[in-house]
Amino acid sequence: MTSLVITVTETLRYRGAIGQWSWVLHRLSGLGVVLFLVLHVVDTSWAVFWPELYEEAIATYQSPLFTIGEFGLVAAVVYHAFNGLRIVFFDYNPHLWRHQQRAAQIVLLVTLVVLAPVFLLMFGHVLDFYNSAPQVLPLTEVLRAQLVFLPGFIAAIVAALILSGLHGLISGGDSATGVVDPQGSRSERFWWSFMRVSSLLILPLVFGHLAVMHVLQGVFDITAQGHDVVGTGGVINESGTAVEFVANRWNLLVGGVAVWRVYDFALLALVVAHGFNGLRYVLTDYTSHSPFLRRASVYLCMLGALTLLVLGVGALLGTIDETAIEMGVEAMERLHAGS
Amino acid sequence: MDISFRIRRYNPEAGRTKPYWQEFELNDVEPSHRVLELLHRVKWEQDGTLAFRRSCSSGICGSDAMRINGRNALACKLLARDVGPKIQVEPILGLRVIKDLIVDMEPFLAHYRQVLPWFVNDGPLPADGRERLQAQEDKDLITDSTNCILCAACTTSCPSFWANGEYVGPAAIVQAHRFLFDTRDTGDDARLDALGAPDGVWRCRTIFNCTPACPRGIEVTRAIGEVKLAVRKGATAGIIDPATIKQQH
Ligand code: HEM
Ligand code: SF4
Ligand code: FES
Description:
The structure holds two protein chains of two kinds.
Chain A: H1 2-13, H2 18-49, H3 51-61, H4 64-92, H5 100-131, H6 139-146, H7 149-170, H8 182-216, E1 227-228, E2 236-237, H9 242-250, E3 253-254, E4 257-258, H10 259-285, H11 291-317, H12 322-338
Antiparallel strand pairs in A: 1-2, 3-4
Helix pairs in contact in A: 2-3, 2-4, 2-10, 2-11, 3-12, 4-5, 4-8, 7-11, 8-10, 10-11
Chain B: E1 3-11, E2 16-26, H1 35-46, E3 65-68, E4 71-74, H2 80-83, E5 86-90, E6 97-99, E7 102-103, H3 106-114, H4 136-146, H5 159-163, H6 170-180, H7 188-196, H8 210-213, H9 220-233
Parallel strand pairs in B: 1-5
Antiparallel strand pairs in B: 1-2, 3-4, 3-5, 6-7
The structure holds protoporphyrin IX containing FE (HEM), iron/sulfur cluster (SF4) and FE2/S2 (inorganic) cluster.
Protoporphyrin IX containing FE binds at residues 26-27, 30-31, 33-34, 37, 77, 80-81, 84-85, 87-88, 195-196, 199, 202-203, 206, 271, 274-275, 278-279, 281-282 of chain A.
């Protein structure tokens, strides 16, 4: 903790150049997106495993709190992506370092230029929604719905601490960090390259995902009854449930291939690996003084990544049938009756 | 010119267990005086207990790196007129403060030793039994990194190092660069392994605080980038394009 506190306060005090602020933004945006990723993958898996809860989750996404969060999410992803490209470029061309200040400024500029029209379009969806006299969940309900994550987070942290303790016992005490270890050396080399290669693949996937789900249509259109479902060539969401919306997308076959399932799988796998390895970088930075906490950080990231992969892949392989959609309809009626 | 000086003090022996700021006023300062001379005036004229390191007073020994007006520099290289009438001085960050501006350099030097910063070549000596000569183009690859004076200004300007004292740090990587890209040296494998460890070169997040902090004008982040590529490749050949090296001779 002290190393985290010192780093935060002294980063604010040290008069570094723009690169320091690029790093702060890159780190915060990455962490923010990882946090949302956890909520989002777990929520989405409910479309298959727990349709009622999925309806509720989408209803919370349509509340003002999440609308603000959505603008933040899009801004974070856009900045992180362009800044990531800058990092990758200078990583492979270190001799051009003199241009990095200007490049960092350009990244900020391009982010703003891209975000301006994107925010306008997104704002259009928000206006449309509120003009249609919608039923909006009250804030307390929205927050209460997030409470289900709390035991999950606590369980993951406790499990990581226990695993780290067991690891320490079995390996016979705390092995020092920073010792020369060719094995560690090889895996870090892999992860460094993976962060860069994966980011180049993630970029088009994640931008495509954001464009389809947040810009072309908004989260409000997910539950628009009789509305066509984005990216399906005109399939209609008959029931107006979020469950049917997901079913329509995932069941779309192009040449016998469920293209959106494949797309979402690629996005899931790459982003989970990239995001949780990024989280590992951040957590291990601030726990170097304690081998116990450091190992726990690594276990926490492994557990998190594994959980999301299992839930996400499980959902992508699952089927959403008529009964699931009926459950969605009922949940929706309950939600509307309640608010 | 008159200068008001704000200095971060710490002296547990005198019973003050917490660091604190102390202000000093200096009159008749020549604009061409260096911050180090101002520190001397404080020590000699106002408070003899002020502690700081210095030796050469001319930017060669690397003993007086400190954070001056928020940024790391050598006190013996910064002129009063360039830092203005208000000067704030504090110890470099990330190493334990022993007294006032003096920090414990041992962890820093331990990282330096970690990269095997010495010449390795067990092959036979040249016929005349004397120097291993090198072509100028080969020397150009390492000229910049041979300029390092181990002042620690770069390493202690780095947020990755503040967070994580296990990180080998910019200075040790610059020193490793000097030997890795020395065409006569054969110790690369062990060095690349040491640098590829989890707290090795990968902890660099290209924040670029180190490069402007370096009093020798070394292209620190570039050197780190080249070492990263060498570690990834497992070899140093072909990493640096000679055409991109700034001319120094
Ligand atoms: C959109 C395309 C993306 C690109 C081009 C990209 C690029 C990068 C790069 C190059 C790094 C390494 C930075 C370094 O070593 O200094 C990185 C780190 C990171 N990324 Fe991404 N990324 C992208 C998307 C994402 C997404 C979607 C997430 C969240 C799930 C994410 C989370 C992180 C985190 C947490 C880090 C670690 C940050 C740190 O160590 O300070 N990234 N990203
Ligand atoms: S690279 Fe520059 S700042 Fe770093 S220790 Fe060497 S001389 Fe000092
Ligand atoms: S006193 Fe030697 S470098 Fe400043």
